[in-house]
Amino acid sequence: MLNLPMDLRFDELMIKTKFDFLMQLSHLQLLGFVVAVLVIYVLRSRKPKGCLDPENFKEFKLVKKTQLTHNASKFRFALPKPTSIFGLPVGQHIVCRGQDREGKEVVRPYTPITLDSDLGFFELVVKMYPNGRMSHHFREMKEGEYLPVKGPKGRFKYKVGQGRAFGMIAGGSGITPMFQLTRGILENPKDKTNMNLIYANVTVNDILLKSVSPSFERMTFSLKTNQEDTLSAPLLVEELDNFAVKFPNRFKVYYVLSQPPETWNGGIGHVSKEMIQTHCPAPASDIQILRCGPPGMNKAMATHLEALGYDSKMQFEF
Ligand SMILES: Cc1cc2nc3c(=O)[nH]c(=O)nc-3n(C[C@H](O)[C@H](O)[C@H](O)COP(=O)(O)OP(=O)(O)OC[C@H]3O[C@@H](n4cnc5c(N)ncnc54)[C@H](O)[C@@H]3O)c2cc1C
After folding, report:
1. Does residue 40 form part of some domain?
2. Lowest-pLDDT choice from 28-37, 190-199, 300-309
């Protein structure tokens, strides 16, 4: 029993009671109390565990399939709980398993366009090729079915402030790692990295994630920004153009089409050395040019970048 003086106010009494309580514990009890407090502190400060396993495939349910273009769709997969975190670091990808037309197993890498700030789900944008093996699996996949996924995977490790700027050269579905990284950077108020994207496609209808048509679901996420980039409205996740409008000093996009429409004010043809010179940061030790596209384009870009004086440390191919 504690001996408490009767002339104390209630708040004083509470403090004294707690203090006396600690004083009256044995050394062993005190040690137990300190350990319990430490365990609670460590558990609370630990990063929440993601849903991915780098070694074993885990299955995720397809909850929504949305057609974006004539050959690309967006797939939303549910995580186990609405509050679950996927656990994919910015710049990394996952590996998906499916079956080709002949029923043979096929495994391919994909980069989600969502981040760990999107709780309870992740999304893929997939371009499907007529004879593509995994393309067949995604084309056939129905809502309610499960996709085996493992990860995170990838050589690209992003750290806030690792450089001043990124130049990004993407072709077709190669936009997904650029989009994910751009979102990760713009969503982090501590990150001041600038980005210049060159995005190449065949026709205007092949451009992915450019802007949201009224029929597409509008998904928003809240964004804390610095003063320079004050947002008047929530950012729409699926708009490259919106990034450019909301962050004009941080993100610029230059579209290139090999078969442009009659009126077109972007680039025409293939991505050239001159386009890179005009639209990407000049060679420097604090910049990097990232590229992701079909093999032929990646090879051509590597040749251009070398000719322009970008050394191997200034280049990265996803
Ligand atoms: C790190 C990484 C991340 C990726 N993320 C995505 C993503 O988010 N979304 C996405 O759609 N794809 C992504 N890809 C590409 C994806 O992994 C597959 O290569 C693509 O889906 C085609 O697979 P497939 O089995 O259908 O085609 P395959 O059976 O492998 O190929 C069949 C034919 O399709 C054509 N083809 C295949 N791949 C390409 C290509 N990339 N460009 C042009 N033609 C091609 C070729 O003509 C080829 O002969 C990523 C690739 C990598 C390396």
Report:
1. no
2. 28-37
- Compute the distance between CA of residue 142 and CA of residue 77 in angstroms, rounded to an integer: 11
Which CATH number belongs to the domain containing residue 298 in this structure?
3.40.50.80
Question: Distance between CA atoms of 19 and 205, rounded to whole angstroms?
Answer: 71
pTM score of the predicted model: 0.81
Domain stop point among 153, 177, 209: 153
Q: Separation of 36 CA from ligand 1 center, angstroms?
A: 51
- The residue whose CA is least distant from atom 9 of ligand 1 is 126
- pLDDT tens string 31-52: 887 888 787 776 666 667 899 9
Range of the domain at 308: 165-317
Q: Do 174 and 259 belong together in one domain? A: yes
Q: Which atom of ligand 1 is nearest to the CA of 126?
A: 11
Query: For residue range 279-302, what is the model confidence (pLDDT) as tens digits?
Result: 999 999 999 999 999 999 999 999
Q: Which protein residue's CA is at the shortest distance from atom 14 of ligand 1? A: 110
Cα 248 to Cα 23, 193, 194, 195, 257: the distances in Å are 61, 13, 10, 10, 22
From residue 141, alpha-carbon distances to 65, 68, 208, 222, 268 in Å are: 9, 15, 20, 31, 35
Expressed in angstroms and rounded, the spacing between residue 103 Cα and the centre of ligand 1 is 18
Kindly list the protein residues whose Cβ atom lies closer than 6 A to any atom of ligand 1: 93, 106, 108-111, 124-127, 129, 131-135, 172-173, 176, 294, 318
Considering its fold, how many domains does the chain have in total?
Answer: 2
Q: Where a domain ends, among 95, 129, 153? A: 153
